[in-house]
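Researcher: Going back to the complex we discussed earlier. I've cleaned up the inputs and rechecked each line, so this should be the final set. Can you rerun the prediction on the complete assembly and write out the structure?
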Amino acid sequence: MAATFFGEVVKAPCRAGTEDEEEEEEGRRETPEDREVRQQLARKREVRLLRRQTKTSLEVSLLEKYPCSKFIIAIGNNAVAFLSSFVMNSGVWEEVGCAKLWNEWCRTTDTTHLSSTEAFCVFYHLKSNPLVFGSCPRKNMQITILTCRHVTDYKTSESTGSLPSPFLRALKTQNFKDSACCPLLEQPNIVHDLPAAVLSYCQVWKIPAILYLCYTDVMKLDLITVEAFKPILSTRSLKGLVKNIPQSTEILKKLMTTNEIQSNIYT
Amino acid sequence: MASRYDRAITVFSPDGHLFQVEYAQEAVKKGSTAVGIRGTNIVVLGVEKKSVAKLQDERTVRKICALDDHVCMAFAGLTADARVVINRACVECQSHKLTVEDPVTVEYITRFIATLKQKYTQSNGRRPFGISALIVGFDDDGISRLYQTDPSGTYHAWKANAIGRSAKTVREFLEKNYTEDAIASDSEAIKLAIKALLEVVQSGGKNIELAIIRRNQPLKRKKYL
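Model: Rerun complete. Updated structure for the full complex:
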Protein backbone atom coordinates (compact mmCIF):
# COMPACT_ATOMS: atom_id res chain seq x y z
CA MET A 1 0.00 0.00 0.00
CA ALA A 2 1.20 3.49 -0.71
CA ALA A 3 -0.19 6.90 0.20
CA THR A 4 -0.27 9.48 -2.57
CA PHE A 5 0.15 13.22 -2.21
CA PHE A 6 -3.58 13.78 -1.76
CA GLY A 7 -3.93 11.20 0.98
CA GLU A 8 -5.61 8.45 -1.02
CA VAL A 9 -4.30 4.96 -0.37
CA VAL A 10 -3.41 2.98 -3.46
CA LYS A 11 -2.40 -0.67 -3.62
CA ALA A 12 1.05 -0.74 -5.22
CA PRO A 13 1.37 -3.45 -7.91
CA CYS A 14 3.74 -6.24 -6.87
CA ARG A 15 5.64 -8.20 -9.51
CA ALA A 16 6.67 -10.95 -7.10
CA GLY A 17 3.13 -12.30 -6.87
CA THR A 18 0.87 -11.82 -3.88
CA GLU A 19 2.72 -12.43 -0.64
CA ASP A 20 -0.51 -12.93 1.29
CA GLU A 21 -1.56 -16.12 -0.47
CA GLU A 22 -0.82 -18.52 2.36
CA GLU A 23 -2.51 -16.44 5.04
CA GLU A 24 -5.69 -16.08 2.99
CA GLU A 25 -6.09 -19.82 2.55
CA GLU A 26 -5.95 -20.50 6.27
CA GLY A 27 -8.71 -18.02 6.98
CA ARG A 28 -10.99 -19.62 4.42
CA ARG A 29 -11.53 -22.97 6.13
CA GLU A 30 -15.26 -23.41 6.46
CA THR A 31 -17.01 -24.09 9.74
CA PRO A 32 -20.32 -26.00 9.83
CA GLU A 33 -22.06 -22.72 10.68
CA ASP A 34 -20.70 -21.12 7.53
CA ARG A 35 -22.01 -24.03 5.49
CA GLU A 36 -25.43 -23.77 7.08
CA VAL A 37 -25.65 -20.02 6.44
CA ARG A 38 -24.59 -20.49 2.86
CA GLN A 39 -27.25 -23.16 2.26
CA GLN A 40 -29.94 -20.95 3.75
CA LEU A 41 -28.91 -18.10 1.51
CA ALA A 42 -29.02 -20.36 -1.53
CA ARG A 43 -32.58 -21.42 -0.66
CA LYS A 44 -33.68 -17.81 -0.22
CA ARG A 45 -32.17 -16.82 -3.55
CA GLU A 46 -34.22 -19.28 -5.61
CA VAL A 47 -36.27 -17.72 -8.36
CA ARG A 48 -39.92 -18.71 -8.15
CA LEU A 49 -42.50 -18.48 -10.92
CA LEU A 50 -46.01 -18.02 -9.61
CA ARG A 51 -49.42 -18.01 -11.23
CA ARG A 52 -51.40 -14.80 -11.31
CA GLN A 53 -51.26 -13.10 -7.92
CA THR A 54 -51.56 -16.39 -6.04
CA LYS A 55 -48.99 -18.45 -4.32
CA THR A 56 -49.34 -21.48 -6.57
CA SER A 57 -46.40 -22.02 -8.77
CA LEU A 58 -46.66 -21.69 -12.51
CA GLU A 59 -46.37 -25.15 -13.95
CA VAL A 60 -43.99 -25.43 -16.81
CA SER A 61 -46.41 -27.70 -18.67
CA LEU A 62 -48.99 -24.91 -18.68
CA LEU A 63 -46.48 -22.66 -20.37
CA GLU A 64 -45.81 -25.25 -23.03
CA LYS A 65 -49.48 -25.05 -24.02
CA TYR A 66 -49.01 -21.51 -25.30
CA PRO A 67 -46.48 -21.29 -28.10
CA CYS A 68 -44.93 -17.90 -28.32
CA SER A 69 -44.26 -15.92 -31.44
CA LYS A 70 -43.48 -12.52 -29.98
CA PHE A 71 -41.89 -11.94 -26.62
CA ILE A 72 -41.29 -8.38 -25.53
CA ILE A 73 -39.32 -7.63 -22.39
CA ALA A 74 -38.89 -4.15 -20.92
CA ILE A 75 -36.22 -3.49 -18.30
CA GLY A 76 -36.05 -0.25 -16.34
CA ASN A 77 -38.80 2.19 -15.46
CA ASN A 78 -38.76 4.22 -18.68
CA ALA A 79 -38.97 1.11 -20.89
CA VAL A 80 -41.76 -0.31 -18.74
CA ALA A 81 -43.69 2.96 -18.90
CA PHE A 82 -43.38 2.91 -22.70
CA LEU A 83 -44.71 -0.64 -22.93
CA SER A 84 -47.55 -0.12 -20.50
CA SER A 85 -48.82 3.09 -22.06
CA PHE A 86 -48.29 2.39 -25.74
CA VAL A 87 -48.59 -1.34 -26.17
CA MET A 88 -50.58 -2.62 -23.28
CA ASN A 89 -53.41 -0.18 -23.46
CA SER A 90 -54.32 -1.33 -26.97
CA GLY A 91 -56.15 -4.59 -26.65
CA VAL A 92 -56.69 -6.51 -23.47
CA TRP A 93 -53.67 -8.00 -21.83
CA GLU A 94 -54.15 -10.61 -19.17
CA GLU A 95 -51.67 -11.22 -16.40
CA VAL A 96 -50.45 -14.79 -16.58
CA GLY A 97 -47.91 -15.00 -13.81
CA CYS A 98 -45.03 -13.35 -12.13
CA ALA A 99 -41.48 -14.08 -11.03
CA LYS A 100 -40.30 -13.42 -7.52
CA LEU A 101 -36.73 -13.45 -6.40
CA TRP A 102 -34.52 -12.19 -3.64
CA ASN A 103 -30.86 -11.56 -3.02
CA GLU A 104 -28.86 -9.80 -0.34
CA TRP A 105 -29.26 -6.41 -1.96
CA CYS A 106 -33.07 -6.40 -1.73
CA ARG A 107 -34.58 -4.14 0.85
CA THR A 108 -37.28 -6.56 2.02
CA THR A 109 -36.19 -9.29 4.38
CA ASP A 110 -39.22 -11.57 4.19
CA THR A 111 -39.15 -13.78 1.13
CA THR A 112 -42.24 -15.89 1.65
CA HIS A 113 -44.75 -13.10 1.99
CA LEU A 114 -43.87 -10.79 -0.86
CA SER A 115 -47.07 -9.19 -2.09
CA SER A 116 -47.96 -9.31 -5.76
CA THR A 117 -46.95 -5.68 -6.21
CA GLU A 118 -43.44 -6.61 -5.24
CA ALA A 119 -42.93 -9.13 -8.01
CA PHE A 120 -39.85 -8.35 -10.01
CA CYS A 121 -41.27 -9.44 -13.29
CA VAL A 122 -44.86 -9.79 -14.41
CA PHE A 123 -45.89 -11.77 -17.51
CA TYR A 124 -48.82 -10.72 -19.64
CA HIS A 125 -50.41 -12.23 -22.71
CA LEU A 126 -52.71 -10.65 -25.26
CA LYS A 127 -56.21 -12.06 -24.69
CA SER A 128 -57.19 -11.90 -28.34
CA ASN A 129 -54.01 -13.64 -29.33
CA PRO A 130 -52.80 -15.74 -26.44
CA LEU A 131 -49.13 -16.32 -27.14
CA VAL A 132 -46.94 -16.66 -24.10
CA PHE A 133 -43.49 -18.08 -23.80
CA GLY A 134 -42.65 -21.72 -23.30
CA SER A 135 -39.70 -23.11 -21.44
CA CYS A 136 -37.86 -24.18 -24.55
CA PRO A 137 -37.25 -21.98 -27.57
CA ARG A 138 -39.82 -22.34 -30.32
CA LYS A 139 -39.52 -21.83 -34.01
CA ASN A 140 -40.66 -18.48 -35.40
CA MET A 141 -40.24 -16.79 -32.06
CA GLN A 142 -38.99 -13.25 -32.07
CA ILE A 143 -37.81 -11.38 -29.00
CA THR A 144 -37.67 -7.63 -28.46
CA ILE A 145 -35.86 -6.17 -25.47
CA LEU A 146 -36.23 -2.54 -24.38
CA THR A 147 -33.99 -0.88 -21.85
CA CYS A 148 -32.34 2.39 -20.86
CA ARG A 149 -28.83 3.44 -19.93
CA HIS A 150 -27.31 6.71 -18.77
CA VAL A 151 -25.73 8.70 -21.59
CA THR A 152 -22.46 9.03 -19.67
CA ASP A 153 -21.95 5.29 -20.28
CA TYR A 154 -21.91 5.90 -24.02
CA LYS A 155 -18.33 5.92 -25.25
CA THR A 156 -17.74 8.16 -28.21
CA SER A 157 -15.10 10.48 -29.53
CA GLU A 158 -17.57 13.38 -29.59
CA SER A 159 -18.19 15.30 -26.39
CA THR A 160 -21.26 14.21 -24.47
CA GLY A 161 -22.67 17.72 -24.62
CA SER A 162 -23.24 17.44 -28.34
CA LEU A 163 -25.12 14.13 -28.23
CA PRO A 164 -28.83 14.39 -29.11
CA SER A 165 -29.95 12.62 -25.96
CA PRO A 166 -32.14 10.72 -25.55
CA PHE A 167 -31.28 8.54 -28.53
CA LEU A 168 -31.79 4.90 -29.52
CA ARG A 169 -29.28 2.26 -30.45
CA ALA A 170 -29.97 -1.36 -31.39
CA LEU A 171 -28.13 -4.65 -31.11
CA LYS A 172 -29.43 -7.80 -32.79
CA THR A 173 -28.63 -11.51 -32.89
CA GLN A 174 -27.38 -13.26 -36.00
CA ASN A 175 -30.78 -14.80 -36.75
CA PHE A 176 -32.64 -11.51 -36.72
CA LYS A 177 -33.10 -10.71 -40.37
CA ASP A 178 -35.17 -7.51 -40.27
CA SER A 179 -33.55 -4.11 -40.06
CA ALA A 180 -33.56 -2.05 -36.91
CA CYS A 181 -35.31 1.32 -36.84
CA CYS A 182 -32.21 3.06 -35.48
CA PRO A 183 -28.41 2.81 -35.86
CA LEU A 184 -26.66 -0.23 -34.41
CA LEU A 185 -24.65 0.11 -31.22
CA GLU A 186 -21.13 1.16 -32.15
CA GLN A 187 -17.94 -0.24 -30.64
CA PRO A 188 -16.58 -0.10 -27.92
CA ASN A 189 -19.97 0.20 -26.21
CA ILE A 190 -21.30 -2.92 -24.50
CA VAL A 191 -24.62 -3.96 -23.03
CA HIS A 192 -24.81 -4.84 -19.32
CA ASP A 193 -26.92 -6.85 -16.87
CA LEU A 194 -30.22 -8.57 -17.71
CA PRO A 195 -30.63 -7.29 -21.28
CA ALA A 196 -27.15 -8.64 -22.09
CA ALA A 197 -28.01 -12.00 -20.54
CA VAL A 198 -31.22 -12.29 -22.58
CA LEU A 199 -29.49 -11.31 -25.80
CA SER A 200 -26.62 -13.76 -25.20
CA TYR A 201 -29.12 -16.55 -24.54
CA CYS A 202 -30.89 -15.74 -27.80
CA GLN A 203 -27.65 -15.67 -29.77
CA VAL A 204 -26.57 -19.04 -28.38
CA TRP A 205 -29.97 -20.68 -29.05
CA LYS A 206 -30.25 -19.02 -32.47
CA ILE A 207 -33.43 -17.10 -31.61
CA PRO A 208 -33.96 -13.89 -33.59
CA ALA A 209 -33.83 -11.09 -31.04
CA ILE A 210 -33.23 -7.37 -31.04
CA LEU A 211 -32.35 -5.07 -28.18
CA TYR A 212 -33.32 -1.40 -28.28
CA LEU A 213 -31.18 0.63 -25.90
CA CYS A 214 -32.14 4.23 -25.11
CA TYR A 215 -29.31 6.44 -23.89
CA THR A 216 -30.76 9.22 -21.78
CA ASP A 217 -29.57 11.76 -19.25
CA VAL A 218 -32.59 11.31 -16.98
CA MET A 219 -32.73 7.83 -15.50
CA LYS A 220 -35.92 8.29 -13.53
CA LEU A 221 -39.36 8.23 -15.22
CA ASP A 222 -39.26 10.98 -17.86
CA LEU A 223 -41.65 11.86 -20.68
CA ILE A 224 -38.98 12.65 -23.27
CA THR A 225 -37.08 9.43 -22.61
CA VAL A 226 -40.20 7.29 -22.97
CA GLU A 227 -41.13 9.08 -26.19
CA ALA A 228 -37.67 8.31 -27.57
CA PHE A 229 -38.85 4.70 -27.88
CA LYS A 230 -41.61 5.70 -30.33
CA PRO A 231 -39.74 4.76 -33.57
CA ILE A 232 -39.99 1.13 -32.44
CA LEU A 233 -43.77 1.23 -32.91
CA SER A 234 -43.26 1.16 -36.67
CA THR A 235 -41.11 -1.97 -36.70
CA ARG A 236 -42.46 -5.40 -37.57
CA SER A 237 -42.13 -6.67 -34.01
CA LEU A 238 -44.55 -4.17 -32.52
CA LYS A 239 -46.69 -3.34 -35.53
CA GLY A 240 -50.27 -4.34 -35.01
CA LEU A 241 -49.93 -4.24 -31.27
CA VAL A 242 -50.39 -0.49 -30.98
CA LYS A 243 -53.68 1.09 -31.94
CA ASN A 244 -54.27 4.39 -30.23
CA ILE A 245 -51.28 6.69 -29.99
CA PRO A 246 -52.86 9.95 -28.68
CA GLN A 247 -54.59 8.01 -25.93
CA SER A 248 -51.29 6.42 -25.04
CA THR A 249 -49.66 9.81 -24.61
CA GLU A 250 -52.40 10.78 -22.15
CA ILE A 251 -51.92 7.59 -20.17
CA LEU A 252 -48.20 8.25 -20.11
CA LYS A 253 -48.70 11.75 -18.72
CA LYS A 254 -50.89 10.31 -15.96
CA LEU A 255 -48.20 7.75 -15.11
CA MET A 256 -45.70 10.59 -14.74
CA THR A 257 -47.74 12.53 -12.25
CA THR A 258 -48.62 9.53 -10.10
CA ASN A 259 -45.03 8.37 -9.93
CA GLU A 260 -43.28 11.59 -9.05
CA ILE A 261 -40.96 11.01 -6.13
CA GLN A 262 -40.45 13.90 -3.78
CA SER A 263 -36.83 14.91 -3.36
CA ASN A 264 -35.71 18.33 -2.26
CA ILE A 265 -32.03 18.01 -3.06
CA TYR A 266 -32.36 19.16 -6.67
CA THR A 267 -34.57 22.05 -7.75
CA MET B 1 -9.23 6.52 -17.21
CA ALA B 2 -11.86 8.64 -15.56
CA SER B 3 -11.84 6.69 -12.31
CA ARG B 4 -8.28 7.57 -11.40
CA TYR B 5 -8.52 11.31 -12.01
CA ASP B 6 -11.97 12.18 -10.82
CA ARG B 7 -11.68 12.07 -7.03
CA ALA B 8 -9.89 15.32 -6.34
CA ILE B 9 -10.99 18.61 -7.84
CA THR B 10 -7.44 19.87 -8.25
CA VAL B 11 -6.28 17.04 -10.49
CA PHE B 12 -6.36 17.30 -14.29
CA SER B 13 -6.71 14.07 -16.25
CA PRO B 14 -4.04 13.36 -18.91
CA ASP B 15 -6.36 14.55 -21.65
CA GLY B 16 -7.16 17.80 -19.90
CA HIS B 17 -10.51 17.10 -18.23
CA LEU B 18 -11.54 18.30 -14.79
CA PHE B 19 -13.91 15.45 -14.08
CA GLN B 20 -15.44 16.93 -10.92
CA VAL B 21 -16.56 19.98 -12.88
CA GLU B 22 -18.06 17.78 -15.59
CA TYR B 23 -19.86 15.70 -12.96
CA ALA B 24 -21.19 18.92 -11.42
CA GLN B 25 -22.73 19.69 -14.81
CA GLU B 26 -24.54 16.34 -14.59
CA ALA B 27 -25.95 17.43 -11.21
CA VAL B 28 -27.40 20.50 -12.93
CA LYS B 29 -29.31 18.24 -15.31
CA LYS B 30 -31.14 16.73 -12.36
CA GLY B 31 -32.86 20.01 -11.62
CA SER B 32 -36.07 20.95 -13.42
CA THR B 33 -35.98 23.15 -16.52
CA ALA B 34 -35.57 26.91 -16.45
CA VAL B 35 -35.74 29.14 -19.54
CA GLY B 36 -34.72 32.77 -19.97
CA ILE B 37 -35.66 35.11 -22.82
CA ARG B 38 -34.39 38.58 -23.50
CA GLY B 39 -36.89 40.80 -25.28
CA THR B 40 -36.45 44.43 -26.28
CA ASN B 41 -38.41 45.90 -23.37
CA ILE B 42 -38.84 42.87 -21.18
CA VAL B 43 -36.88 39.94 -19.77
CA VAL B 44 -38.68 36.71 -18.93
CA LEU B 45 -37.67 33.77 -16.75
CA GLY B 46 -39.83 30.65 -16.84
CA VAL B 47 -39.37 27.61 -14.62
CA GLU B 48 -41.01 24.27 -14.15
CA LYS B 49 -41.79 24.00 -10.48
CA LYS B 50 -41.79 20.59 -8.89
CA SER B 51 -45.06 19.64 -7.34
CA VAL B 52 -44.97 20.38 -3.64
CA ALA B 53 -45.62 17.67 -1.07
CA LYS B 54 -48.98 17.92 0.69
CA LEU B 55 -47.66 19.13 4.01
CA GLN B 56 -44.99 21.39 2.56
CA ASP B 57 -45.33 25.16 2.56
CA GLU B 58 -45.22 26.23 -1.07
CA ARG B 59 -43.55 29.57 -0.41
CA THR B 60 -40.28 27.94 0.58
CA VAL B 61 -39.81 26.12 -2.73
CA ARG B 62 -38.36 28.94 -4.81
CA LYS B 63 -36.57 28.54 -8.11
CA ILE B 64 -36.56 32.22 -9.09
CA CYS B 65 -34.99 34.72 -6.70
CA ALA B 66 -34.54 38.46 -6.83
CA LEU B 67 -30.93 39.51 -6.28
CA ASP B 68 -31.85 43.19 -6.26
CA ASP B 69 -34.77 45.33 -7.47
CA HIS B 70 -33.62 45.21 -11.06
CA VAL B 71 -31.89 41.80 -11.28
CA CYS B 72 -33.24 38.33 -10.72
CA MET B 73 -32.02 34.81 -11.32
CA ALA B 74 -33.32 31.29 -11.84
CA PHE B 75 -31.18 28.25 -11.11
CA ALA B 76 -31.14 24.51 -11.78
CA GLY B 77 -29.30 21.95 -9.67
CA LEU B 78 -28.55 21.49 -5.99
CA THR B 79 -30.96 23.54 -3.88
CA ALA B 80 -28.57 24.12 -0.99
CA ASP B 81 -25.72 25.27 -3.24
CA ALA B 82 -28.11 27.74 -4.87
CA ARG B 83 -29.12 29.17 -1.51
CA VAL B 84 -25.49 29.84 -0.60
CA VAL B 85 -24.69 31.47 -3.95
CA ILE B 86 -27.83 33.61 -3.89
CA ASN B 87 -27.08 34.84 -0.36
CA ARG B 88 -23.57 35.88 -1.34
CA ALA B 89 -24.85 37.59 -4.47
CA CYS B 90 -27.53 39.53 -2.56
CA VAL B 91 -24.95 40.74 -0.05
CA GLU B 92 -22.64 41.77 -2.86
CA CYS B 93 -25.43 43.76 -4.54
CA GLN B 94 -26.02 45.81 -1.40
CA SER B 95 -22.35 46.17 -0.62
CA HIS B 96 -21.77 47.52 -4.13
CA LYS B 97 -24.63 49.99 -3.68
CA LEU B 98 -23.16 51.29 -0.43
CA THR B 99 -19.58 51.50 -1.67
CA VAL B 100 -20.08 52.85 -5.17
CA GLU B 101 -23.55 54.42 -4.64
CA ASP B 102 -24.80 52.75 -7.82
CA PRO B 103 -26.81 49.57 -8.26
CA VAL B 104 -24.88 46.64 -9.76
CA THR B 105 -24.97 46.04 -13.48
CA VAL B 106 -26.22 42.60 -14.51
CA GLU B 107 -22.81 41.81 -15.93
CA TYR B 108 -21.05 42.76 -12.68
CA ILE B 109 -23.14 40.47 -10.50
CA THR B 110 -22.88 37.66 -13.05
CA ARG B 111 -19.11 38.03 -13.04
CA PHE B 112 -19.15 37.95 -9.24
CA ILE B 113 -21.14 34.71 -9.18
CA ALA B 114 -18.97 33.17 -11.89
CA THR B 115 -15.76 34.11 -10.06
CA LEU B 116 -17.14 32.57 -6.87
CA LYS B 117 -17.92 29.35 -8.74
CA GLN B 118 -14.49 29.25 -10.37
CA LYS B 119 -12.77 29.61 -6.98
CA TYR B 120 -14.39 26.39 -5.89
CA THR B 121 -12.96 24.56 -8.91
CA GLN B 122 -9.44 25.44 -7.86
CA SER B 123 -9.26 24.74 -4.13
CA ASN B 124 -8.43 21.49 -2.50
CA GLY B 125 -11.09 19.95 -0.28
CA ARG B 126 -14.07 21.86 -1.70
CA ARG B 127 -16.28 20.60 -4.49
CA PRO B 128 -17.71 22.89 -7.21
CA PHE B 129 -21.20 24.39 -6.86
CA GLY B 130 -23.69 22.09 -8.57
CA ILE B 131 -25.86 24.80 -10.11
CA SER B 132 -26.24 26.70 -13.34
CA ALA B 133 -27.92 30.09 -13.18
CA LEU B 134 -29.81 32.34 -15.60
CA ILE B 135 -29.44 35.98 -14.54
CA VAL B 136 -31.66 38.65 -16.11
CA GLY B 137 -32.23 42.33 -15.63
CA PHE B 138 -32.02 45.85 -16.99
CA ASP B 139 -29.01 48.10 -16.62
CA ASP B 140 -29.04 51.85 -16.10
CA ASP B 141 -28.59 52.34 -19.83
CA GLY B 142 -31.98 50.67 -20.30
CA ILE B 143 -30.70 47.63 -22.22
CA SER B 144 -32.01 44.21 -21.28
CA ARG B 145 -29.50 41.49 -20.38
CA LEU B 146 -29.52 37.72 -19.97
CA TYR B 147 -26.48 35.81 -18.72
CA GLN B 148 -25.91 32.15 -18.00
CA THR B 149 -23.31 30.71 -15.59
CA ASP B 150 -22.35 27.07 -15.07
CA PRO B 151 -20.43 25.09 -12.43
CA SER B 152 -17.10 25.67 -14.13
CA GLY B 153 -17.35 29.40 -13.53
CA THR B 154 -17.82 30.50 -17.14
CA TYR B 155 -20.49 33.03 -18.03
CA HIS B 156 -21.90 34.12 -21.37
CA ALA B 157 -24.53 36.56 -22.57
CA TRP B 158 -27.45 35.01 -24.41
CA LYS B 159 -30.53 36.12 -26.29
CA ALA B 160 -32.43 33.09 -24.99
CA ASN B 161 -31.28 29.97 -23.16
CA ALA B 162 -32.41 27.07 -21.01
CA ILE B 163 -30.82 25.07 -18.16
CA GLY B 164 -31.69 21.94 -16.22
CA ARG B 165 -33.43 18.77 -17.34
CA SER B 166 -34.00 18.52 -21.14
CA ALA B 167 -32.32 21.88 -21.65
CA LYS B 168 -31.09 20.77 -25.05
CA THR B 169 -34.64 20.19 -26.32
CA VAL B 170 -35.74 23.61 -25.14
CA ARG B 171 -32.68 25.29 -26.63
CA GLU B 172 -33.39 23.69 -30.01
CA PHE B 173 -36.98 24.95 -29.82
CA LEU B 174 -35.71 28.45 -29.02
CA GLU B 175 -33.22 28.37 -31.88
CA LYS B 176 -36.06 27.61 -34.26
CA ASN B 177 -38.56 30.07 -32.83
CA TYR B 178 -36.59 33.03 -31.50
CA THR B 179 -37.04 35.69 -34.17
CA GLU B 180 -37.16 39.47 -34.02
CA ASP B 181 -40.94 39.22 -34.44
CA ALA B 182 -41.23 36.73 -31.60
CA ILE B 183 -39.76 39.16 -29.12
CA ALA B 184 -41.14 42.37 -30.63
CA SER B 185 -43.81 42.80 -27.98
CA ASP B 186 -43.85 41.86 -24.31
CA SER B 187 -46.70 39.40 -24.66
CA GLU B 188 -44.94 37.65 -27.55
CA ALA B 189 -41.83 37.15 -25.43
CA ILE B 190 -43.89 35.73 -22.58
CA LYS B 191 -45.70 33.40 -24.99
CA LEU B 192 -42.38 32.16 -26.36
CA ALA B 193 -41.12 31.35 -22.87
CA ILE B 194 -44.28 29.42 -22.03
CA LYS B 195 -44.26 27.52 -25.34
CA ALA B 196 -40.61 26.59 -24.84
CA LEU B 197 -41.34 25.22 -21.37
CA LEU B 198 -44.39 23.30 -22.54
CA GLU B 199 -42.10 21.30 -24.82
CA VAL B 200 -40.65 19.53 -21.81
CA VAL B 201 -42.76 19.94 -18.70
CA GLN B 202 -44.07 16.67 -17.43
CA SER B 203 -47.44 17.74 -16.12
CA GLY B 204 -48.75 20.08 -18.79
CA GLY B 205 -49.17 23.72 -17.84
CA LYS B 206 -49.87 23.20 -14.19
CA ASN B 207 -46.46 23.76 -12.72
CA ILE B 208 -45.08 26.73 -14.61
CA GLU B 209 -43.98 29.87 -12.84
CA LEU B 210 -42.89 33.01 -14.66
CA ALA B 211 -40.98 36.06 -13.56
CA ILE B 212 -40.88 39.18 -15.72
CA ILE B 213 -39.01 42.43 -15.41
CA ARG B 214 -39.98 45.38 -17.56
CA ARG B 215 -37.72 48.41 -17.93
CA ASN B 216 -37.82 50.55 -14.75
CA GLN B 217 -40.37 48.30 -13.13
CA PRO B 218 -39.96 45.82 -10.29
CA LEU B 219 -40.02 42.04 -10.65
CA LYS B 220 -43.45 40.48 -11.21
CA ARG B 221 -44.21 36.81 -10.62
CA LYS B 222 -46.97 34.89 -12.33
CA LYS B 223 -48.11 31.40 -11.48
CA TYR B 224 -50.15 29.23 -13.78
CA LEU B 225 -52.37 26.72 -12.04
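Model: Worth noting: The two ends of chain A are 42 Å apart (CA to CA).
Researcher: Good, that matches what I expected from the previous run.
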